[in-house]
Amino acid sequence: MTNIFVRFFITLILSFLLISSSSLAFHKKNSQSDNKKTDWDGSKEAKKISETNAKQDFCALSAKGITVLEDGDPIPDLTTGEQRINEETGKPEFDQIEVNKIQVTGYHSPEPRNTGGVLIPTPANGLNFNISQDWRDIKLVTVLKMYCLQLKTEDRPNKFKGSYLEDFYRLVAAENGYLKADGVTGDYNKKLMEGPEGRGPIGGRDILKDGIIISNPDAVWYLPDFLIKQDLEIKKAIKQKKESEAAAKKKAEEDRKKKERNEARKKAERDGNEQWISENKQNYVDLFGKKLNEYENKIAELETKRNNLKSNLDSFETLMIEAEEDSKNAIADLVNRDNQEIKDLREILRDNIKQHLSKNDLEEYKSKFKKIEKINFNKYKNYTTLKDLIKRAEKSKKAKDFVGKDGYKIKLPKILGGKTKKITGDKIGFIQEFRNIENRDLGSGSDEVVFNMDSLNNSILNRSEDIKNYVNFKVEELKALDEELGQRIPWNLIIIGAVIAIIIIAVGVYLYFQRKEMDQLKREAEEKVGSLKNEFEGKLKSTSEQIKSVSRNTQRSQQTPLKAEDVVEEKPKTPEEIVAEKYDELVSDYKEAIDDFSKVAGFKQKWHGLALSKKARQEGTKTILVNSSRAFEKAEIWCVTFSDKYFAFPGSKVKSNMAIYMNFDFQKADEDFKGVFAVSTGTSYTTEPSVLRRGGAGFVVERVGKLIFPD
Q1: E-assigned strands of 501-630?
Q2: Which class for 157: exposed (0-12), middle (13-18), buried (19 or more C-beta within 10 A)?
Q3: Which among 58, 295, 429, 643 is placed 20 to 30 Å from 504, CA to CA?
């Protein structure tokens, strides 16, 4: 039945497409306009983007941002206080407010429809459709565009030229025999009647009736604007037809049951009470029991569901208690509590504790469960009614109890008309009582209880996941960071110690040479005193010998010890030189990672990479970046760090999707990376990282980087 409706619906749609006029193939001649809701705020800057998005979403010929007047709040009458009525028109009056909308012209319905493997240009329902001369001049591409044939796996292009549709339409043309001179390449610019299948039935196939073959399972088409009204009328007709058939089916079922009861009653009267009971009672009792088993299975399911809910609630309470205790211990046991990373992560954890470990949530869950816990599933009305019915049916030995009976009738005397009059009401039997509840659930409120239990259980499970993700995970992250900081080499302390050691050594060396020089002077003085003493005591040496002696002593005193071979020591690097070398190494690794996807994982591990995205709502002049929900390999912004410095680079996905960002004069790139990277064009793809600092629950952009796309 469903397939018949679908075929009927498609046939009517396509009939409208072809019968309306010979110019329907040209959407421009029949295009209509409609004002669509939009998120455009009315600014000139966002107008072009909103128009482009609307044109793409509705596959429209044109889209224009406009401001229209619409009814706002009712205007009150100053006397009565009720809404004011216009005296001339008699209609209620409203305040007029300006609303920003996008006016689309020549548009299509946004809902895609599957081709089912074939796109039928003419209805295949036996209608005698005469093809006009205009139809003969229509090109294949015109028909495909009229249907707005696309692939649901691809984004709607804003124009045909240069889009994937050109290749897709060539494949469709080739698949249906519309080929260029080479006999292989599809030619969608050929007229519909120029293809091998367009000239008439070939091999039992006529393209106008059997359709254009579309083998791609992802192919969809969209309804043009001038047929939307007819489409609604067709859907309304189909709905009315379904409702009419459903009503007829229901009446037929009621008539069948009524006939069944009448036949059963007649049979009981005809065969006698004992024979009817012997042949039918147990069958009906078994039928009643089968329905009772269904009810009892449903009750068992409800009991199981409630027990699982109780278990999940208890686990949630335990999870909250343990998470609160673990988080307190983690904060209390911090070793590097003065480290800025530790401080930032600790503040995030405290905020998450306030948000996700609220006692109010637990109390609310317990209150809701307490109401569910009080429900007695065995007291539902239809269940108790059926149990009572089975009890009465098992005891009964009368056929009329099962099939029912008419009211008691008497014949009036002639003076009162002599007619027969019923003086008691009819009584339905067990069979009819069962039919009344046969297709019903346990009783009023049972479906609501199932919904409430599922809703509460889902809420508990979701909140449990939040605690694990935002509290437990942050606790482990805080512990790991504290432990990592404890194992890091304290280069700053080592450098300070080295500088102090160098100073101490330099002072020691200076004192050593000073003392050595003093000892040398002392020895020279002693030698001079000894020499003079020898002169006065001996008085035997000549003046020349004394002069020579003095000269020799003077030369010895002026002689310096032989210099040892100069030792070339390597000059230690400054902290600035160390950071510069580290930065050059980071940039080199980044360039390798964006050019070779296999190196992304190693790059992330080496430089402690994080996936970031812009915070949805920005406050202040600084741009805020927060953790992205995407994996590092698929994120648009990569954060890396060394020596307590944080940098943001464009991810490899930005370079691989460079063509997308280059559309619309880099508007998407400007929007995505505003405040993070200044977007411009140059001779090649070039990047310069942004400089970040830790701040609150994320990072603050201290210096904007650069993102240069090739011309």
Answers
A1: 610-614, 624-627
A2: middle
A3: 643
How many beta carbons lie within 10 A of that of residue 89, not counting itself?
Answer: 8
| Mean pLDDT score, 626-650 | 89
Q: What is the C-alpha to C-alpha distance for residues 192 and 207, in angstroms, rounded to an integer?
A: 9
pLDDT at residue 449, as a whole number: 87
What DSSP line would sit under 425-484, residue for residue?
--B--HHHHHHHHTT--SSTTHHHHHHHHHHHHHHHHHHHHHHIIIIIHHHHHHHHHHHH
Residue 678: in which H helix or E strand, if any? strand 677-682
- Beta carbons within 8 Å of 691's beta carbon, 6+ residues apart: 645, 646, 647, 648, 701, 702, 703, 705
Which pLDDT band, with edges at 50, 70 and 90, does 283 fall under? very high
Say whether pLDDT at 563 is over 50: no
403 φ, ψ (degrees, to nearest 5): -95, -10
What's residue 522's pLDDT?
Answer: 65
Spatial CA neighbour of 192 closest among 203, 177, 204:
177
Q: State how far the alpha carbon of 707 is from the alpha carbons of 335, 591, 600, 677, 690, in Å.
A: 40, 14, 19, 6, 10
d(CA 680, CA 711): 9
Q: What is the mean pLDDT of the segment spanning 64-79?
A: 81
With CA atoms as reference, report the closest residue to 623 among 672, 662, 669. Answer: 672
User: How many Cβ atoms are within 10 Å of 193's Cβ, its own excluded?
Assistant: 18
Q: How would residue 33 be classed by pLDDT, with cut points 50, 70 and 90? A: confident
pLDDT class of 447 with cuts at 50, 70, 90: confident
Which residues, 6 or more positions from 211, have their beta carbon under 8 angstroms from its beta carbon? 118, 119, 120, 121, 124
Q: Can you tell me the distance from the alpha carbon of 230 to that of 12, in angstroms, rounded to the nearest whole number?
A: 9
For the chain, the average pLDDT equals: 79
Residue 628 has what pLDDT? Answer: 86
What single letter denotes the amino acid at residue 277?
Answer: I
Least confident of 291-295, 309-313, 566-570: 566-570
Instruction: Give the Å distances, CA to CA, from 115 to 10, 156, 221, 234.
Output: 10, 17, 7, 19
Nearest alpha-carbon partner for 450 in 461, 462, 442: 442
What is the SS3 assignment for 585-622?
Answer: HHHHHHHHHHHCHHHHHHHHHHCCCEEEEECCCCCCCC
The predicted structure's pLDDT at residue 506: 80
Long-range contacts of range 424-432, CB-CB < 8 Å, 24 or more positions apart?
A: 428/404, 429/261, 429/400, 429/401, 429/402, 429/403, 429/404, 429/405, 430/284, 430/288, 430/389, 430/392, 430/393, 430/396, 430/401, 430/402, 431/261, 431/264, 431/284, 431/402, 431/403, 431/404, 432/261, 432/404
Task: Express each pLDDT in 577-633 by its tens digit.
Answer: 888 888 999 999 999 999 888 899 999 999 989 999 888 766 667 888 888 888 898
State how far the alpha carbon of 625 is from the alpha carbons of 73, 478, 590, 620, in Å.
40, 20, 20, 13
In sequence order, what DSSP letters do the residues of 365-397 get, joined into one string? Answer: HHHHHHHHHT--GGG-HHHHHHHHHHHHHHH--
Place of tokens 């984004």: 155
Strands 645-650 and 698-703: unpaired
Residue 331 tokens read as 């904060």
Cα dist from 544 to 533, 538, 551, 676, 696, whole Å: 17, 15, 10, 90, 91
Nearest by Cα to 70 from 49, 94, 43, 34: 94
Task: List phi, psi (to 5°) of 69.
Answer: -100, 135
Q: Which of 94-108, 174-188, 256-270 has the lowest mean pLDDT?
A: 256-270
b/e 450-470 (16+ beta carbons within 10 angstroms → b): bebbeebbeebeebbeebeeb
End-to-end CA distance of the chain: 58
Given a contact cutoff of 8 angstroms between Cβ atoms, the answer to whether 178 and 195 are in contact is yes
